[in-house]
Amino acid sequence: MAASDVTHKPLTADDTASIVAAGSARGDGGSAERYRPLPTGTHGLDPEIVKADQCERLRGALIELIARKGYPSVRILDLAKLAHVSQPTFYSLFSDKEELFLSAYDEIAQRTARTVMSAYEADGPGDQRLSGAMHAFADLAVAEPDAMSLLMLGAFGAGPRALERRRRTLDALEARILASRDGAPARGKADLTVKVIIGGIREVSSARLREGREGELPGLVEELAAWATSYPRKVPPGLGAPALTRGEACAAQASPRARRAEGRLPSGRSDLPRQLIVKSQRERIVDATAAIVAEKGLAGLTIPEIARRANVSNQTFYSIYASKHDAHLGAQKVGLHQALQITAEAYQAYEHDWPRAVAAGLGALIAYLTSEPAHAHLILVDTFASSPEAIEIRSAALRGFAVYLQPGYQLAREGATVPAIAAEAVAGGVVQVLHHYIENACIAQLPEAAPQLIYMALTPFLGPRAAAKAARASKQPAPAPA
Fold first, then answer.
1. What is the largest CA-CA distance in the chain?
2. Residues 417 and 438: beta-carbon distance below 8 Å
3. How many Cβ atoms from other residues are within 10 Å of residue 326's Cβ?
4. CA-to-CA distance for 108 and 150, rounded, in angstroms?
5. 482: number of CA atoms within 13 Å, CB side?
6. Element (H, E) at 305
7. Which of 79, 100, 235, 436 is 20 to 30 A (C-alpha) from 251?
8. CA 326 to CA 303: how far, in whole Å?
9. Which own/partner contact pairs does 259-267 have at CB distance under 8 Å and 24+ positions apart?
């Protein structure tokens, strides 16, 4: 039934109460109850209320179907059937599935922000308010895991508009929290504390939601709050990060490895070993895949385009990868493996001095990302539009980075108790900052942000004073490893 089919009569207070009760009843039962439509025929309900009810049912149906079978597999027919609306009614409300998705995402984001910020802006000490806000989010995650998963992870295959909406949502939440903090960084500098905290909480929460372990989140709130409050409200002097202007041209120069990979081996018969030829072809395919995704997004990734840029035939492509999806996952694995290897080598060179080792590892990681901008974009930004497999590869790498923070528990300052969640949260927070610079096309500014990131990584373990000292020391040339 379309909204235009309704006979309009003024609503009474009893009518409104009945509608609210009906909506509440739908939320408490199974699918039949959740999507039970309002009465049909000449019922005197305001057309706008009928329309709002239909939209609510369609948004709920979309969230449920995405969780059940993934965004690309959801059809308008499926949505209409589950929500108990006709297809003509669907098209009278939304132009297509993407518009419905954006509407559902906005509704979840706004409701979550209201709930979380209401707790955060309540009266009381800052630590208590932060804990209250985290408890509010954890309760939402337990009550509505599918909706919170959509908010935190997005929907694979939903497209660039969905990613942009996700970015705007996180930016708005960060801005509200920043506005409640004391002071401001020096002109032209940024305080990344809130971004690290939100990023860490988001990564910890996303991992549990993705694995169906959302029930753990309420029990992690106090640990997360203790981790978050280990950071002072202001970054120490001299550790400000570069402030970004969105869209500012900050492209980095490609590495010598990337430039060498662009070359093509001699065509025709060759005396080169077959293994070397295949290695070169695979590397060119990986680099071409990363470059295309960085430029055009996953929607622009096609096998003919990969083959053309990699200077290989379609037949050669299929001899190495079965599909463009496999090529994308292959490129992601290569990029993350290189990032982990480079980080590990730098860390291990100073393993006898853990703060310096962390600084060296982070510095090496940032140097790699700035020299491989296409791979950096693919492994840290484009993953969220890809697939569950891509998210799992990313999560495994994140766990690998967190391992290098484990010695911090033994080195914690005397009398301090470091929350068990700290290493996981720090790794997530640092990755979110890297994501931020790369997504905003300011990857070349990351080296300037490195000292503050080192400070953020060390503070929960060493305390702010020792962490700041180590971060400032990282600006000096490192001595040769012992």
1. 88
2. no
3. 13
4. 9
5. 6
6. helix 303-310
7. 235
8. 11
9. 261/287, 262/287, 264/311
* pLDDT at residue 18 is higher than 90: no
Residues β-bridged to residue 8: 44
Torsion of CA 22, 23, 27, 30, to 10 degrees: 50
Which range is most confident: 236-240, 300-304, 356-360, 389-393?
356-360
Does some domain include residue 154? no
Full residue range of the structural domain in which residue 267 is found: 256-327
Who's near 219: CB < 8 A, 6+ residues apart? none
In the numeric block, the tokens 């025929």 are attached to 41
- The encoded tokens of residue 252 equal 């980095």
Q: What is the CA radius of gyration of the chain?
A: 25
Q: Which residue has the tokens 């993934």?
A: 70
End of a domain among 327, 349, 384?
327
**Dihedral over Cα of 332, 334, 339, 344: its sign:** positive
| pLDDT tens per residue, range 208-254 | 998 899 999 999 999 999 999 999 988 998 898 888 765 444 444 55
pLDDT band of 71, cuts 50, 70, 90: confident
456 found inside a domain: no
The pTM score is 0.81
Res. 16 pLDDT band, cuts 50 70 90: very low
Of 26, 60, 94, the domain-final residue: 94
Distance CA 379, CA 424 (A): 18
Please answer whether residues 386 and 156 qualify as being in contact, where contact means their C-beta atoms are separated by less than 8 angstroms: yes
What's the whole-number mean pLDDT along residues 74-83?
94
Q: Is 450 left (phi over 0), alpha (psi -120 to 50) or beta?
A: alpha
CA-to-CA distance for 199 and 117, rounded, in angstroms? 17
Question: At 477, is the secondary structure helix, strand, or coil?
Answer: coil
| 214 CB-contact burial (10 Å; exposed 0-12 / middle 13-18 / buried 19+) | buried
Higher pLDDT, 11 or 62: 62
Where residue 290 sits, what CATH number does that domain have? 1.10.10.60
Residue 187 within a domain: no
User: What is the token pair recorded at 429?
Assistant: 């927070």
pLDDT of residue 43: 56
CB neighbours of 319 closer than 8 A, spacing ≥ 6? none
- Helix, coil or strand: residue 242: strand
Q: Is residue 130 part of a domain?
A: no
Mean pLDDT computed over 398-419: 89
pLDDT, one tens digit per residue, over 277-327 is: 888 899 999 999 999 988 888 878 999 999 999 999 999 999 999 999 999
Q: What is the count of structural domains for the chain?
A: 2
